[in-house]
Design brief:
7 strands; seven-stranded mixed beta sheet; single chain; Cobalt-precorrin-4 Transmethylase, domain 1
């Protein structure tokens, strides 16, 4: 059964209302946006490139008014050609978005290997937060200063904010600025 244009719009509106009950908003392009934390300072955005291509990533960043993409991967490499550092920088340049690599805020290969082996993100999260507090304070302060200047999204691979180390980086920066966090 094929739905008419009105039926499709009604279904989209119904789905959007249902998602809104869980704090999720859907954009015109069908992307979901969730508020993770409410604050009074600037908003910090986070985004994962899993199941995206470079063009769709740039579209959502532009739609949200992002002016800087902070790549928080330890190594800006990917099996997906669009998300290798040089290609991602080119996409950003074309979109009018500043690309900044922040490898100092990435999880280490040892931490990722341990997570891969155990599958326990909560344990990884506790260890990574302790590691970040112990070794990344100056970098987190620098990122906080940068975030204050222009709308910024933190980028890593995982699609879900809460399954990625960027959620911890975002939380640590947000606590410095009393910021909101929005997952794209």
């Amino acid at each position: 059964m094929r739905l008419s244009g009105n039926a499709i719009e009604e279904r989209r509106a119904s789905n959007a209302r249902a998602l809104a009950a869980f704090g999720t908003k859907v954009t015109e392009r069908g992307e979901s946006i969730r508020t993770i934390r409410e604050g009074t300072g600037v908003t910090i955005y986070t985004i994962g490139y899993e199941r995206r291509d470079g063009e769709s990533l740039m579209n959502i960043l532009r739609d949200q008014g992002i002016k800087m993409l902070a790549d928080v991967r330890e190594r800006a490499m990917s099996r997906k050609p669009d998300f290798r550092a040089a290609a991602l920088k080119a996409f950003c340049d074309d979109a009018g978005i500043e690309y900044q690599p922040w490898p100092c805020l990435g999880s280490t290969s040892e931490q990722r290997d341990e997570l891969q082996t155990s599958g326990d993100f909560q344990a990884f999260s506790r260890r990574f937060r302790a590691h970040a507090l112990r070794t990344m304070a100056l970098h987190l302060d620098r990122l906080a200063e940068s975030v204050k200047k222009k709308p910024t999204a933190l980028l890593c691979y995982e699609r879900l904010h809460e399954e990625c180390h960027r959620s911890i980086i975002a939380d640590l920066v947000a606590s410095r600025l009393n910021s909101s966090i929005v997952a794209l």
